[in-house]
Design brief:
With 166 residues, the protein is mainly alpha-helical. The chain has seven helices and two strands, in the order ααββααααα. The structure holds heme C (HEC) (2 copies).
């Protein structure tokens, strides 16, 4: 993920942001309190970006807010797919009939976890995070289609109550 981002492309190293230099008395040492660079913008970012702190914070937040929004959309969709699979199973669908949807569910989950575990909420590589979340959404979509198109017993409560044949 990181290596797809603009800072990696520009040759910026982890330590430039996460372990910036600081002054202790007359000495210049590197900060070993690994913490959010956004709590230390003056040392972590303004060495390179000569723009006001609030502006830098806003730029980072802009990337993170959008990534988080997309992450929530992908997560909601995945939860819907899991619900669809559960309802189909409760209505009598076999493991064979659900295999395709479950496989797609796992792929969607893996990609979502991948972005989640990376933990910068898109900051390291915003477009790459968006691409991976888009792929996750696509697997979820295909999983719901797999359920729709499989020859499953009906999962509609109304139809079941009306005693329609499965
Ligand atoms: C251009 C600055 C920059 C560089 C370079 C950078 N990061 Fe980050 N990193 C950030 C920012 C900003 C965040 C998000 C912090 C936040 O949301 O509070 C972050 C978040 C993280 C987190 C999650 C932090 C947490 O508190 O959970 C980890 C882990 C991390 N970075 C590791 C790395 C590694 C490893 C590298 C090098 C491969 C790297 N970073 C390079 C700016 C940078
Ligand atoms: C060692 C220098 C360096 C440091 C430190 C650094 N940056 Fe950058 N940053 C760059 C370069 C170079 C680019 C790419 C600019 C370009 O090529 O146009 C960039 C690009 C960006 C962009 C545009 C990102 C995008 O996706 O288009 C943002 C936002 C940004 N930096 C924020 C930060 C923040 C916030 C920090 C501190 C956490 C930080 N930078 C630390 C050098 C640095």
């Amino acid at each position: 993920m990181w290596n797809q981002g603009i800072h990696a492309r520009a040759g910026v190293a982890c330590a430039d942001c996460h372990m910036p230099y600081m002054r202790v008395g007359a000495m210049k040492i590197s900060d070993h309190h690994v913490r959010s660079p956004l709590l230390n913008i003056a040392n972590a970012c303004q060495t390179c970006h000569r723009v006001p702190e609030a502006e830098l914070e806003a730029r980072a937040e802009n990337i993170q807010t959008k990534t988080f929004e997309l992450r929530n959309i992908a997560l909601d969709a995945l939860v819907e797919l899991i619900g669809d699979i559960q309802r189909a199973r409760d209505a009598g669908a076999t493991d064979d009939q659900l295999a395709a949807a479950r496989g797609l569910q796992r792929k969607a989950q893996f990609l979502l976890d991948f972005v989640e575990a990376e933990n910068s909420t898109g900051f390291h590589a915003g477009q790459e995070a968006a691409r991976v979340l888009g792929q996750s959404l696509d697997y979820t979509r295909k999983g719901q289609i797999a359920i729709r198109d499989a020859d499953l017993p009906t999962t509609r409560p109304a139809a079941a109550a009306a005693g329609r044949p499965r």
